[in-house]
Design brief:
It contains three helices and no strands. The chain is mainly alpha-helical.
Length: 73
C-alpha cells in the first residue's frame, strides 16, 4: 500500500470513528453486505466461465484415477 493510500485509509478510519456508534454499526453491516454481494458476483462469473468452457469442450471429466493416469502419460 502506498503512503497516499495509507493516509486516505487513516482519514477514512478517523471519519468513521467520529460517527455515533449506531452509525458505525450500520456502516459495518452495509460493508459486510456489499462484500457478500461482490463475492456472489465473482462466483457467478466463475460459474458462467466454467459453463462456457464446458460447452466448448475445454473441460474434461473423470475420476482422480483418470487425472493421475493422464498426468503420468
Amino acid at each position: 500500500m502506498s503512503s497516499q493510500q495509507t493516509v486516505t485509509f487513516q482519514k477514512a478510519l478517523d471519519v468513521i470513528e467520529s460517527l455515533p456508534e449506531y452509525q458505525q454499526q450500520d456502516l459495518i453491516e452495509i460493508i459486510k453486505h456489499r462484500l457478500i454481494e461482490h463475492r456472489r458476483e465473482l462466483l457467478a462469473e466463475k460459474i458462467r466461465e466454467a459453463r462456457e468452457e464446458y460447452a466448448r469442450g475445454d473441460v474434461k471429466r473423470g475420476t482422480i484415477d483418470d487425472l493421475i493416469k493422464e498426468l503420468s502419460e
